[in-house]
Automatic annotation (TrEMBL):
This is DJ-1/PfpI family protein. It holds the Pfam family DJ-1_PfpI. It comes from the Bacteria. Residues 2-163 form the DJ-1/PfpI domain. GO terms for biological process: regulation of DNA-templated transcription.
Length: 207
């Protein structure tokens, strides 16, 4: 199973690295970071750089696509090299997935019309512009398209996908090897549970 994760300027690192870690541990799975041209791509904090080792042209038919989100997502929605690759590769994938605002890129590629989808809580309404039905859930599966909510939800998505693509035992084994046993110190991980004023402060961090 070959997974391609496209990188673009100002992607969110965990959107890409979370699913990468899960899938790279899966037996028989290979993960490749791709971009329009091979080379370094810097995240939305401006301090972490990942290397794309292949171009879109090098990987026209991956088995799985994982599209990360990030503060640069809106800037690349008009990048036809990226959205064109997503659209064309999707015709051959077993699974096409996204994390956080990466679902907006699936929408820009025309893949979400009439489907339920999720994204970061602050961007859910943007999915309507792509003809999708926004759903406030951690992971949403519609056929072979799987979308995840914000950032850390990419790990949940990857484990969900792994269970569907292989079996639950494999997914459980990977979950254990990465010791993914969330016990957050606060209940502020969702706008539904965050204390008053936290959502507004969180939005201020997205600029």
């Amino acid at each position: 199973m070959h997974v391609a994760i496209p990188l673009y300027p100002r992607f969110t690192a965990l959107d890409a690295v979370g699913p990468y870690t899960v899938m790279a541990f899966a037996p028989g799975w290979t993960v490749t970071f791709v971009a329009e041209e091979p080379g370094p791509v810097t995240d939305d904090q401006g301090t972490l750089t990942l290397a794309a080792t292949a171009s879109y042209a090098d990987m026209p038919r991956p088995d799985v696509i994982v599209v990360p989100g990030g503060l640069g997502t809106l800037d690349v929605m008009s990048d036809t090299a990226l959205t064109g690759w997503i659209r064309e590769a999707h015709e051959h994938t077993m699974w096409t997935t996204s994390v956080c605002s990466g679902s907006l890129l699936l929408g820009a590629a025309g893949l979400l019309k009439g489907l339920k989808a999720t994204t970061h809580w602050a961007l859910l309404d943007f999915l309507k512009q792509a003809g999708a039905e926004p759903v406030s859930e951690r992971v949403v599966t519609e056929g072979k398209i799987v979308t995840a909510a914000g950032v850390s939800a990419g790990i949940d998505m990857a484990l969900t996908l792994l269970a569907q693509a292989t079996d639950e035992l494999t997914a459980q084994s990977v979950q254990l090897v990465i010791e993914y046993d969330p016990q957050p110190p606060f209940t502020s991980g969702s706008p539904k549970t965050a204390p008053e004023g936290v959502a507004e402060r969180a939005l201020g961090l997205l600029t």
